[in-house]
Amino acid sequence: MTASEKDDITVDYLAKSLNELRLDKTNGNSSSLKKGKLVVSCKNFPHAHVGRVTEKSPSLLTDCEEVHNCSYVVGDSKMWDATSNKPKLKPEVCDYIKSSNWKSPAIRDSFVGFDLTKGYDEYVPLPRDILNSVDILTEAYERYEKALNKDKTTFISLRHHLIDIIMCPFQNEPVSLIMTVLPDKNILISVDKSKSKPNGIHDVANPHARKICYTGFALEDLLTEPTNSSGVSDHELFYSIVRGSVDNDIDLFFQAEIDSINTTTDTYTEIKSSVHFRMSNTYHRRKLLRMWIQTTLLPKSDLLIGFRNCYSNELEQLKAYKIQDIYNKVSNRSLVNKPGKFYRFNPNIANDWFHYIFKVIRIHLLSMSQETPSKSFKVLIDANLTLSIQPISPST
Fold first, then answer.
1. Which candidate among 2, 86, 143, 144 keeps its CA 20 to 30 Å from the CA of 123?
2. Cα(93)–Cα(99) distance, integer angstroms
3. Rounded alpha-carbon distances, angstroms, from residue 282 to 34, 256, 288, 349
4. What are the C-alpha distances in Å from 314 to residues 114, 123, 283, 343?
5. pTM of the predicted model, to two decimals?
6. DSSP code string of 153-189
């Protein structure tokens, strides 16, 4: 039997396991109801072998499309702006990506050596309430609801909530969110303010850590054109509204904040600041996996990383990654075949978990929403992959 045939058998078995999911017990995962709270162990979720590496990066979603995009200026009363100001990469950056000439004089002279902490003292981060707001998302949902598949459950969410759920097997932190079953049986995901975790520069108290977080914003400003005549693009946000299919029962409808657009390729480009990767470093591999998830969720997206000096925070190199490049880097056979925790940060395991956990959440939420007066639930996935779903009293 060839390796390819073995992979096909593994995939077939996984699909069968997911299809046979039931409320009470799934492949050794037990569930119980305690004082109105449902507790389900998902530790034994079905997945491919942790050493499995495919030639092609898996797709988290099928039939994925952008249904709209819009910009929002913070403080503007107009929430839905049809005349979107797209954050465009500077022409020399687009040319740099196209040519793959990493020693281009235009890049070296314009960007390399730039201090990515410049402007830190004057920077005012956005309030978290804006980052977690679902106002634009729900308005988009109301506009496009009729076009959604009525035979499927659609999860409506901000992209970073989806990423947090998918990352659960690869970190030691719990994820807690509020999920509301709407009258049409679709499910809105929103922030759980009581369990909201620190989110980069918006919450970090350590000055050094805040400065490191700031380098990402500085890099975005450095590589993109100003979005208005004043030359200042602070606090103008650009969003993509995306619909995609998870499986025969589940769709996603989500809002993603976009860093930039490459006008040469008409591709959304995520911009990240980082020190040079050491693939033996757990943090770096986790960071790469998160980048893979973030870009893979969009129908047409890639990544541009600005590598900075770890001491001076000066930009040393720009490097572009397609989704396949990120996958190849994080799922290198020499890494996934070594003993290690967190499923060795294998994107194939992330894909399996994603399809499994949304199926489990859907089944239980729809069932519980019929059995309790509440339509909103606190959904928690802890570090042991134990899922708990607790109704929220309508009076609270």
1. 86
2. 10
3. 36, 26, 10, 16
4. 5, 18, 21, 34
5. 0.89
6. EEEEEEHHHHHHHHTGGGSS--EEEEEEE-TTS-EEE
